[in-house]
Prior knowledge:
There is one protein chain. The protein is α/β, with parallel strands linked by helices. It has a single domain, classed as TIM Barrel (Alpha-Beta Barrel). It has helices at residues 2-26, 49-53, 74-81, 98-103, 107-120, 152-169, 218-224, 227-233, 250-258, 260-266, 292-308, and strands at 41-45, 61-67, 86-92, 126-130, 173-177, 198-206, 209-210, 213-214, 238-246, 270-276. β7 and β8 (213-214) form a beta hairpin. α5 (107-120) packs across α6 (152-169) and α9 (250-258) runs parallel beside α11 (292-308). It is globular and about 50 Å long. Residues 1-31 have low confidence and may be disordered.
Amino acid sequence: MISRYLHRVCLSLAAVMFLLPLQVNAETEVRLPALSDEHCTIGIHTSELAVFNRFQERPGLLGWFETWFGEIQEDKLRACGQGLAVPMITWEPLGVSMEGIESGEFDAYLTAYFETIRALCPDNEVLIRFAHEMESRPQYQFSWYEWQGLDPAVYISAWKHVVDLGREICPNIKWVWSPNHADQYAEPYYPGDQYVDYVGVTLNLTVKEYYDIHYADALDYYRRAGIQDWHKKYGRPQIISEFAYANDDLSERAAYLKSLLPLIEENPQLKAILFYDDDNTSLRDFRFSDEPELTEIFEEIIRKVHQEGSNS
């Protein structure tokens, strides 16, 4: 008798699960993925959807790169639109004039792009990190993007034009202004609170040294490189858009990744952190997902932060 009762319960639950998609489409109150107000959301930057799907602890953010007039990664957008994760697109205007953006020369492309996002992710939050790492510094030997070191007035005008058009067509897009480091060199490029939803930074490091300065761990780097104090000055919620550490010593990499938890606990203003899992150049392989020990640390951070709310 008990077994028949359990069988009926299982059938009833299966029927409810089968009907859930219909209810989601019918009820506007259902909340699709968005960054949490209760804790920092942990995500991953990866070019492969299969890498994202292999984790047992599901990241809350899926980040990837796209170039202007390049292929739109509809598979990722569609999956995020169906509830996989919050998407964050790093959108690079390679080979595109910022003056042309400002003047409206590329509005047809922008309109089509935003309409595609609206069609694939109509309800959930979509983060766009447009023209990132825009600032130059005296110690930089070269610029790796053509918009880097541009006249701030031109950059800001182009930024505002893109955001205005994006908000008109696809208001669920959230805009991430993301310099390399949030310091005095980045500040002139800030377009203002009304044009920025999140302020991001890049926190990638190689062998704990950056321009001949040694850092003990992730928190030490965030503090002493001047990023933390400058990051907090902006009036918007904050994101670490890329977090990575390149080192041939696996034990040192593991220790560095673990040091992210104290950083999160000390900085409740951080709303998201994306682990960078791509081979950036021949000199910096930031991938961690192919190392079981590092993957385990990543998933443990997700458990602690998402379930226990380490920075809430």
